[in-house]
Amino acid sequence: MSKHRLAEGAKSWHQNHNFTIRARQNQLLQDYCRRALWRKAVAVLDDSHGSGVPADLATYSLALDACFRGHQSELASSLLAELRQNNFRPDVVVYNSSISACSKAQLWEKAVSLFSELRNSGLQPNVITHNALMGACEKV
Length: 140
Known about the structure:
Elements: H1 3-34, H2 38-50, H3 57-69, H4 73-85, H5 92-104, H6 108-120, H7 127-138
């Protein structure tokens, strides 16, 4: 077998292994998010940095959601900054998730701030964005 073929096989195995680990991390984060277990969600995110399987946009999005649901808006804001530092660009889904979580946590001011941030970033809000924002503001 050629060195090239061995290298390709090893690369493929490594990518599949990383995908499996990340999928398990994100599954765990979904559970923590549903239960607003923000400390555990942040621990999973922190562990991903040292595991050799770096977090992806979905991992950050779930950790953000857990933080907002747990009324940890400052921590969530720092995670958004970290997300950008790691060369991820929050998309509409990340903003929608964050605004929706703020609505559930009755953090209407933070929801409005995130909406402004979304608009200033050049992204276009969608129906989900507007519904989440209205839900946050109707509880005022």
